[in-house]
Amino acid sequence: MKVFRFFLCLALLVGVVGWAYAYFYVKDRESTRTSELIAQIEGISGDATRGEYVAAMGGCIACHTHVENGGELLAGGVPIETPYGTFYSPNITRHDAAGIGQWTSEEFVLAMSVGTSPNKQHYYPAFPYPSYSVMSVQDLVDLKAWIDTVESVAEPAPEHDLTWPFSVRSGLLVWKALFFDYSRTMDLNDRGNYLVNGPGHCAECHSPRNLLGGLSARSLSGNTRGPDGESVPGITLQDLSEWSIQDLELFLEVGITPSGDFTGGHMSDVIEYSTSLINEADRNAIARYLLSETNNP
Ligand code: HEC
Ligand code: HEC
Question: Which of 58, 131, 134, 282 could be stapled to 199 by a disulfide with Cβ–Cβ 3.0 to 4.6 Å?
């Protein structure tokens, strides 16, 4: 009994110390990053036309519009099946109560870059903010300006339906401490790298994940347990050895592979709402990045 009590106390102590550590770690990183971002927002104004293009770079529409159900643009409600339960994407139209109509640009930038809501709740990584976190503040402020022009929808999206303990949002504190990289930065002049690893969030599907849903390594080496249980092929330089730049450009525009097949599953949504809508120069930048040595882990 004594031994049991000893181990129980030890386990509790480790739990409390771990939680406190995660709390202070996350708080510290988050406030540093927040001040950096706020300093950058100063004096930036948003351009809705550019913002619409940023929405295409980020594939926001595919996740936040329930096309199958005839849902309105950005009104959310799209179910995302995961091993932890079903997420429903929120309504991100400018409706005050059901959407994000009351948000400031600053709050929007923080949600996208540090994964924290205006009332300081942590977001689930089913929202790919760990990729969006490197997006430029200009891109994000433009994106917000576009969202502000989209028709407001009064209907809120359903609540997530997750299994315990994943349903406890505050547990995301530990997830962030373990897996969220607050200091990831990106050279904005390296356009292909930026599009793939920032807004394009290709790694969110094409990288393997550990049991807690952390991206084990941001390599694009494939994932047998992708969204909705789908298997996602690797797209590293090695995996794409049979592809030319032109093959990739054509694939990203219309979804046809070098062997003449049309791609299916989630990749067809990525093509429809994202890579077919960006310009040729950006598709070329993505193709060049994928076939570069940087993409050879
Ligand atoms: C893979 C699907 C997916 C994609 C792609 C995606 N989102 Fe989301 N988004 C979600 C989910 C799921 C949530 C809810 C997260 C939570 O509850 O913690 C969310 C939450 C949000 C929120 C917070 C809303 C609120 O009410 O607190 C905003 C803002 C948002 N997304 C904007 C965007 C933008 C802008 C893009 C494109 C750059 C985007 N999302 C792309 C799935 C996605
Ligand atoms: C929502 C998940 C998801 C995202 C995000 C995603 N992909 Fe995919 N991708 C897939 C799936 C699933 C397949 C396999 C489709 C099939 O079986 O036809 C695929 C296939 C591909 C292929 C074909 C590989 C082959 O060997 O046939 C390429 C190239 C590709 N994706 C590139 C990208 C790029 C570049 C991005 C980022 C801009 C990206 N993908 C983002 C899910 C995704």
Answer: 58
pLDDT along the chain (297 residues), means of 10: 78 85 91 96 95 98 94 96 94 97 97 97 96 97 98 97 95 94 92 97 93 83 86 96 97 96 93 97 98 93
pTM given for the model: 0.95
- Using a 10 angstrom Cβ sphere, with 0-12 exposed, 13-18 middle and 19 or more buried, the burial of residue 43 is exposed
| Residue minimizing CA distance to atom 28 of ligand 2 | 235
User: Best mutation site among 50, 52, 57, 63 for ligand 1, i.e. most ligand atoms within 8 A of its Cβ?
Assistant: 63
User: CA 226, CA 163: separation in Å to the nearest integer?
Assistant: 19
Beta strands (DSSP E) in the chain are 79-82, 85-88, 161-162
Give the ligand at the shortest distance from the Cα of 255.
Answer: 2
The dihedrals phi and psi of 71, each to the nearest 5 degrees, come to -65, 155
Nearest ligand to the C-alpha of residue 85? 1
| φ/ψ bin of 77: left (φ > 0), alpha (ψ from -120 to 50), beta (otherwise) | left
State the residue for tokens 């525009």.
253
Phi-psi region of 201 (alpha: psi -120 to 50; beta: other; left: phi over 0): left
Determine the distance separating the centroid of ligand 1 and the alpha carbon of 92, expressed in angstroms.
8
Contact 176, 26 (CB under 8 A): yes
What CA–CA distance (Å, rounded) separates 128 from 58? 10
